[in-house]
Amino acid sequence: MTKDNRPFPSLEEIKRAAEIIRSGGLVSFPTETVYGLGADALNPVSVARIFDVKNRPLFDPLIVHVASLSSIIELTEGLETRAEKLIKRFMPGPLTLVLPKSKIVPDIVTSGLPTVAVRMPDHKVALELIHQAGVPIAAPSANPFGYLSPTTACHVKEQLEEKIDMLLDGGRCILGVESTIIKLDGQEPLLLRYGGLPVEEIKDVIGQICIPELQDDKPESPGHLPYHYSPHTSMKFIEDIKDEDIDGKKAGLLAFEAPRNDNDISFESIEVLSKKGDLIEAAANLFSALHRLDSLGLDIIIAETFPLVGLGRAIMDRLQKAVNNRITVK
Asked: Looking at residues 275-282, what average pLDDT do you find?
């Protein structure tokens, strides 16, 4: 059973979804992080459909989901010791490794880069789907490019239902934020995205990690653009609010532990991510809360800042990109 007591898809449904994948179709499926939009990673035409359905720029590489270590070995050109340690410690789990790719990986998956992003999701439905399909599955989040990531099947239905071939409903995603991405190509390890696995835990295994500046021309991993994860409603942090931003406007508040009103703002709606101040709970609730606020016809969403420790870094990464809100791809 899922955490919200909804039953997992039956094995027959998963087998039908796997056949759709093998036949070149698109299937949305749950993971522990967010819902993915999956296609056969070794079929360039199928992968091209992902970019088309999401309206995703071709320079933004995809993550390939696998169910075994042997698949990672097949997709990459040798595993260095640090990669082996991380795989052993954190997979299955919310970690993506960017590694030198093998020749079997189509260039469209990696946006022409010499590396491929791979991860093993910690979710029974996702792993069974990959196993039944018999192929690695390329899968970004199942949402239009740049918009809020889906953490329930309802989010997928609202945004993409008519454009995909099947949706496997596995209930609410437990983590609620995307995987952490680390690049390992023989050089110093690079953090390419904060995510569901705290960086502190990764450092405990492989030592120091370099954190590069954001790129906005040709990212090395998904979610690395300075604009991403954005609601349609304008967003600002509470510290940056000016009188003209809220004068006569309908505002919503995204709060961490409890509502605060330092600016004497009358909020139309308040979403509290964790009443007990738990960053793990806050991360799991983040996208669902933003989806709800975005559906209310507000003029602005005001967000509190979060502590930059553990999953607080991932939450702030998503919020900062949502505040930037510079989506120009059509």
From this structure: 91
- Quote the tokens at residue 96: 């993506």
Closest CA to 27 of 102, 106, 138: 138
* Contact residues for 19 (Cβ-Cβ < 8 A; gap 6+): none
- Backbone φ and ψ of 214, nearest 5°: -60, 150
The stretches of the chain forming alpha helices (DSSP H) are: 11-22, 44-54, 69-75, 81-90, 107-110, 124-133, 153-160, 199-206, 243-246, 279-294, 311-324
Closest by CA to 154, choosing from 13, 28, 281, is 28
| pLDDT tens digits, 288-298 | 899 999 999 99
Asked if pLDDT for residue 204 goes beyond 80, the answer is: yes
Edge-to-edge, what's the strand order for the sheet holding 300-303? 234-237, 300-303, 251-255, 267-272
Question: Do residues 117 and 71 touch, judged by C-beta distance below 8 A?
Answer: no
Choose between 326 and 243: higher pLDDT. 243
Tell me the one-letter amino acid at 73: I
